[in-house]
Structures are given as C-alpha cells and as structure tokens.
Amino acid sequence: MMARLLHAFRSALGFSGCLCICATVLAADWPRIAMPPGVSAFAVGEQFTANGLPMRVQGFVARDQSVQALASWFRRSLGQPLVENKLGSKLILGRAEEGYYLSVQLEALEVDGGAASKGLLLVSDLATLNRNRDADASSAQRWLGRWPSGTRLLSRMTSQDQGRASLHVVLSNGHSESLNRDALIAIMKEDGLALVRESGTPTSMALPAALRNARALFFTGQRKQGIATIARDEQGQTTVVLNTTTDLESAPP
C-alpha cells in the first residue's frame, strides 16, 4: 500500500503545477489533516485522481521550525498507529483512517537565508480506488486502444477544479515520432481539438538530453485546449506527454 501511495504522491507533485490554486482544498466529507500553528499554508489542488487514486493535497512552509519539531507535532496530531518512512531527504508519516490514507511529507529548506521546513499534507481515497479499480482499468484500456500497438500508459491524472477539467497523460512506445504525431493529431480531432501550432524545443533551454529534440504540439477546440510533447530517447522509445483542459462551466448540458 505504501509503495503505491508514494508512487501516486510523486506523480501528483509532478503535476501540481498544472492545477488551479483554490482555497477550499479539503471539504467536510474527507478527513482533514490539521496544520501546525505558525505556518504559512498554500493550496495545491481541490481534487485530482492519479492512476485511479483520488487525492487532495495541501502544503505549508514553516520558518524557524525544524523537520524534527514538526514530526513530533504531527506524531501527536495524527495519532497512532503511524507509519514512518524516509524518501531521500524527506520524512513521510502516514496512517489509514476509514478507507482513506493520511500522509505528511516533511523536508528541510532554506528561506531568505534562514532555516525552514516544507510540508505537504495528502489525503488519499483508497476505498474509491479499490471500488473503481475495474472501471479505471477498462477506461485505461479504451484510451490505449486509440494509440499504436504496444503503447504503454505510464501515468494518467485527472482533476476538476474551479469549473475546469484537466487531463495529464504520459505514454511510451517503440514507434517513430512521426507515427505517434499522426496518432495524436487523429485522437485530438476525435475529441474536438485541432492542431494550431507545432514547434521544436528552443536550443537555449537547459533540458535533459531526452527532451532536447522534443516536438511541442498545441491544440484548441470549443472550450478546450491541449499541449503535447513528443520525444524519442537513445533506446528508441518515444514518450508522449499530453495535457488537456476543458471549461465545464460554459459547456452545453
């Protein structure tokens, strides 16, 4: 359970920049993780789903408070039994609560030349993950069925925030960039998005070697937008990263 949670957690953090910021992060029907006193809180996303796991995340920065002091506070606040893990420089505390999993990630950082700590509070709905497992697997297979044979779905994340639905997908296969480009354009057309611009990666950008020759494709549609990157690595694998957003508030009934 913990390994799956940490994997989804890392995926969620990677996508958090694509989500809208909102103030109502944790609603009353989800368990709530209390904030330590004297910290500066920030929201990450109202609610999103990573590989079938619904999650809500909130963060904070604590000046002049060490990771050890915050960990002691959360050990008292979260209650027992409590699982503790180290992930690199991060300390993760977690426990199950009535179908949910509550976890806290703590990490030291420097703010304005002084010592500080950063925390992320994650509430994961494991009951919904288990209940919808078959439906999520069928949905993933339907999505893969639209791509060239042998395509693997590495990550699929959805969110609904402030009247906007977002989709983030990462796929990989051994086919050429041109074949994946053609498949992507056809799939976007089926979903009501047309290619409006295509460009290469600027040479001035400091990017990993695998992304230096990436192509970026931009799509638009009625109340929809999309951007995708396609890159082929030295092992002959092509990766497609796709982000789409749909305006739900103005969508027809």
Strand and helix layout:
Layout lengths: L1 H14 L24 E11 L2 E11 L3 H12 L4 E5 L2 E8 L2 E12 L2 E12 H6 L1 H12 L7 E10 L2 E10 L3 H14 L2 E8 L14 E7 L2 E9 L5 E10 L6
Antiparallel strand pairs: 1-2, 1-7, 2-6, 3-4, 4-5, 5-6, 7-8, 8-12, 9-10, 10-11, 11-12
Description:
28% of the residues are buried. With 253 residues, the protein is α+β, with helices and mostly antiparallel strands. It has five helices and twelve strands. It has two domains: 2-130, no CATH class; 133-247, 3-Layer(aba) Sandwich (Protein Transport Mog1p, Chain A).
How would you summarize what this structure contains?
This protein has 253 residues and is α+β, with helices and mostly antiparallel strands. The protein is 23% helix and 45% strand.
